Fold this protein.
Amino acid sequence: MLLKRLSEACGGPGQEDEVRNLIRDEVTPLVDEISTDALGNLITLRRGNQEGPRVMIAAHMDEVALMIMAIESSGLLKFNPIGGIDPRVLVAKTVVIGKNRVPGVIGSKPIHLQRPEEREKAISINEMFIDIGVSIKSEAEKLVKIGDLAYFSTKFAEIGNDKFKGKAFDDRVGCSLLIDLLHDRYDFPLYGVFTVQEEVGLRGAGVAAHRIQPDIALVLEGTTASDVPETPEHKHATSVGKGPCITIMDSSVIPDPRLVATLLQIASENEIPVQIRRNTAGGTDAGKIQSSRSGVRVATISIPCRYIHSPVAVMSKADYDNALKLVKAFLHCVEKGEI
Amino acid sequence: MDIKKILINLSEASGVSGYEHNVADYLEQNCPWADEIRRDKLGNLIMLKKATRNTGAVNPKVMLAAHMDEIGLIVTKIEKEGFLRFSTIGGIDQRVLLAQEVVVHGKQNLLGVIGAEPPHSQTADAQSRAVKMEDLYIDIGFDNAEQVQELVSVGDLVTINQSVVQLQGSMLAGKAMDDRACVAIMLECFKELQNLTHAVDVYAVATVQEEVGVRGATTSTYGITPDIGIAIDVGHGDMPGVPEYQTIKIGNGPGIALGPHVHPKIYERFVSTAKEWNISYSLEPATRPGGTDAFAIQITQDGIPTALLSLPLRYMHTPVETLDYQDIQKTARLLAKFISEIDQEFVEGLMCF
């Protein structure tokens, strides 16, 4: 399964190679042009009979990870998160480091040796380390380099009622949707762009948009869902299983209101469940694409994921299928000149 | 038979305190070195290896005890949205549970994820605190309580879903190494004894319910009435953030415990045996009888001469308990040498203070 392979692949900001290679193998037979740029964005084009409008769909390849900052004399590794990670989710997890996937664990002090008040306090990144099972620095240096990225070693699986669990759904779910979309040909040029470095400030999407000069752009994302106990409904942001999410505003972008209205109308006409993303925090590649050159009309469609940016997230298969339907219907409207 | 592979399977098996039968079943099928295997009423698995050398009318009995139960969770409530609330069985730091994967043992085994309110909807102050156990829940991917109730009931047990990770060299990490790694020590010891002779009957007991109050050791010791009892449990391995004096060194062989819970002559014999055979070890002094099977064994019936060997283990009671397999082999070798060298005379001497 494509999403499983994408989820289990490892690629953090600036080190997206494994994901890019997987996607390149997957889409090369589907597209007319494929290239990479100076930052490592993978840019594909499926031509149409018409010259326009130029439509760009973007999904980012990178995931949050841990960067190895130092190797201690004991052989233990110190790290910092690359991208936003709540340190509390890291305690007592397994990771794999670098291209060779050196296995490691993030240990924590045994409960027996703690004072009761310690258990109330979050463990900070400074107190954490990765243990790869060596006892001296020189042994560790043979296996791990400063700057290597460590990834959660989570396996993808189907759980419950048509749900998936796995890591890096943000944004491999977008990558998977975009690959699915590239199977179809439209009358207009469709640029499928797999971007880099979204998690460290949307850095790949801007330069890709500058090169492509799209008329319209869609960003496909994994977004936070908080439809969980303890969280009042008005803070749910999105709900798993209630359909793909449409962004009205986040910290990076106010998407084009006409595109938003069109998407909502298409959803309604085609009886595709959708939800408005009920949170204005967070940013996506749409922010950089919108302000590229003299401006681009953008919209963001995202899949709700519980426990995003943690070792294991949960998402709904139905949301995925409905997002695919929605984007396809949208592209047909573009084809008919209705956008 | 590769006992490391057996340990990996033991670690990945599910057996929370009181529900150890899966582990016992697996062990029963994978201990060809025992002459007899039986279970007692609490579920302790007793593997007997009879004396292979005769020195008297009655063979002295040595009991080894390593517990096969693991810490876990128990379902306490099914929320209307289908999430599960839980309580713990055994001592678990609430901070290791967030974003952990679990298996819910309902009508079928169900994969789940331990979640909590996401950080972005929490205040900065709340983010600096650990998420409390009562604010955590298990997400098994269903949409409402009705769907869940068909498969899960209050009281169902939950284990951590963690496969063993083979780290560098002979290092392994996984769940329930406390204390199944020491069950593996007993198997390695039996295997080692195949190449030696021994004048004592050896009862290797995979005990139950250690984590909730050393209960299996209590009944199994009573049933066996050994002349010597040796508990084998995990000890805290050296790691950052923990003072050195509270730990034993990983890779340096067993910790040999000393203190009121350990018979001084057995302790001395372990130390001299280790020296004689060049087996590295650490000393593990304790001021009080601690929470191991030795606690129960020592005060069974008229009292049993008891000792405790500790396997160095990092990150105890977390899903990534980490150990060096060489320490398992070193501990097993020390045990086997000790067992092969003791006799009736040594046993009788234990009563003389």
Notes: The longest helix of chain B spans residues 177-193.
